[in-house]
Amino acid sequence: MDMNRDGKAIGKKALFCEPRPDKRVKCTLCPRYCNIPPGGVAFCFARENRDGTLYNRVWGRPTAVHVDPIEKKPLFHFLPGTDVLSIGTAGCNLGCRFCQNWDLSRAGEVQRGAVVMPPEAVVETALRYGCPSIAFTYNEPTILAEYVMDTAAIARREGIKTVMVTNGYISREAIPAVYENVDAANVDLKAFDDRFYRKQAYGRLQPVLDALVVLKTMGVWIEITTLLIPGL
Asked: What confidence tier does 192 reach under pLDDT thresholds 50, 70, 90?
């Protein structure tokens, strides 16, 4: 974790990246494969090129922390009737025109309103409130990959489950590492039409379908949410 002059977390060196000429960095975490120039950020706002090194700048800096019923995620067949500690930051790797959390998902100022909460503190908070699971939710957790991985590893040692509430827009090569200690996922399959994904979400359908197959083969508990928009 890197710190600023005030001793606050400002991110962590990112995994899932390849250096490019002129200090550009290619992010390989999601199917966008953003080619980020020095000083630039990825489409998701969460991953920043600092002088040729990619950083996850929302690591340990959630903007939303809440205890929810697990059914609100929504997961109806995974630890039913229990509470879950919900964690979210700013940023997203899709650009859904219908997003209900747009103030978080498209927030470029990812540190605004954030609190310092490293993985150990997340797990401690879950234990304190009697939550048998932690959910990365509210915004897209794929872009938090390193934060999720670090937290989930500690949570598993403490007997706490980890949940991803995700759009499923992740590269195939990143899935095994990101989901190594993740127990369940609610995947938002927004439509079964690539044209919809391209026009309404600025993404593609196939990577989401691929992710569902890989997660199933890994043994991750999966529940699927399908959005209904009248006229679309």
From this structure: very high
Helical residues (DSSP H) of the chain, grouped into ranges = 102-105, 119-128, 145-157, 175-178, 194-196, 206-218
Phi, psi (rounded to 5 degrees) for 217:
-70, -25
Element holding 88 (H helix, E strand): strand 83-88
User: How is 116-150 classified by DSSP, letter by letter?
Assistant: ---HHHHHHHHHHTT-SEEEE-SS-GGGGHHHHHH
Contact 110, 45 (CB under 8 A): yes
pLDDT at 164 over 70: yes
pTM over 0.85: yes
CA distance 184 to 163: 5
The pLDDT tens digits for 87-140 are 999 899 999 988 887 766 665 555 556 789 999 999 999 999 999 999 999 999
Residue 1 has pLDDT above 90, yes or no: no
12, 4, 24, 32: which is closest to 169 by C-alpha? 32
Is 11 strand, coil or helix?
strand
Maximum distance among all Cα pairs of the chain, rounded to whole angstroms: 53
Q: β-strands 221-225, 17-19: how paired? A: unpaired
Pairing of strands 9-13, 2-3: antiparallel
